[in-house]
Amino acid sequence: MSIVKGKIKPALPTWPMGLCHPEKWSLEKICQVAKQFGMEAVEVVNPEDFPTLKAHGLTCALTMSHWFIKGPNNRAHWDECMAALRKGIDANAEYGFTNVITFWGYEDTTADGGSRVSLEEGKKNLIEFYRQIAPYAAEKKVQILLEALNTRDPADWKGHPGYQGANVDDCMEVVKAVNSPGLRLLLDIYHVQIMNGDLVRRIQEYKDYIGYVQAAGVPGRNELDESQEINFPLILRTLAENGYRGYLGLEFIPTKKDPMESIAETVSWFNA
After folding, report:
1. Which residues, 6 or more positions from 59, have their beta carbon under 8 angstroms from its beta carbon?
2. What is the mean pLDDT of the chain?
3. pLDDT interval class at 260 (50, 70, 90)
4. Distance (Å, rounded) from C-alpha 48 to C-alpha 33?
């Protein structure tokens, strides 16, 4: 009996091929490739692009909301973040999707009209903020998903120096304090491996709070193959054995000349 097949399904993300690869795939192309590989979902999609996914018979596995620099850790950004999250929640409810991403925010946003906040102040602000919006998400049968991002890698799209929610344990503290099905953890094993590691045990400990999963190879944010320090097949099995039943966003930046080879190789792991 398969441990993973049918339990965890891959979702093709928009940004690695749309922004970071020389081919710069359009959303239309990404949808076509997803269908070609038998995928059911695309992730990191704006609400206004939902009709394109629907036209291809695809699900939005993860919806964008506010950006990761200006987060609800800073009260100066609450109105902007609240509006973006409500827009994402309402669009998901309308289209029958379920996941909206949220970010902790940067410690220092003085350059963007904000201020500098301490970790403890930021944590308190997040808890208060999500206690206001999480019940609304739960009422709409939508999950807001809080993601930890690594601050160690200075390269664009690979790390986020200045992000205050880099420690996944801090994110978990917020999720537990809010105590609502409308707020869950987005476990990105790429970022968590860089900042915290101990992936298998964390999956076991966080299993009741993980709402969505993303993955890429470490180091480099590239293919999930034997050259990486993450044992991806083991991670998939651990997720399945601990009850995760959802999509997993393949957020790696392909290095092969033909990115279709990279995608095919990674998708094969989901049939184990």
Report:
1. 40, 41, 42, 53, 97, 247
2. 95
3. very high
4. 20
CA dist 261 and 243 (Å) reads 30
Residue position matching structure tokens 């239309």:
28
What is the band of 226 on the pLDDT scale with cuts at 50, 70, 90? confident
Task: Copy the structure tokens of residue 50.
Answer: 């939902």
Q: Can you name the residues that pair with 12 across neighbouring β-strands?
A: 42
The beta strands (E) that lie in the chain are given as 9-13, 41-45, 59-63, 99-103, 143-147, 183-188, 210-215, 247-250
Between CA 140 and CA 9 the distance in angstroms is 23
Contacts of 198 (CB under 8 A, 6+ apart): none
Residues 224-253 as b or e (16 or more Cβ within 10 Å = b): bbeebebebeebbbbbbeeebebbbbbbbb
Q: What is the pTM assigned to this prediction?
A: 0.95
Tell me the per-residue pLDDT of 3-14, one tens digit each, with 9 for 90 and over: 778 899 999 999
Alpha helix positions (H), 43-111: 50-55, 78-95
Any idea which residue has 């707020």 for tokens?
Answer: 183
The answer for residues whose C-beta is within 8 angstroms of residue 16's C-beta and 6 or more apart is 157, 251, 252, 253, 254
Is the predicted pLDDT of residue 211 greater than 70, yes or no? yes
Task: Find the distance separating the first CA and the last CA of the chain, reported in whole Å.
Answer: 9
Tell which phi-psi region holds residue 36, choosing left (phi > 0), alpha (psi between -120 and 50) or beta: alpha
Q: How many CB atoms lie within 10 A of CB 61?
A: 27
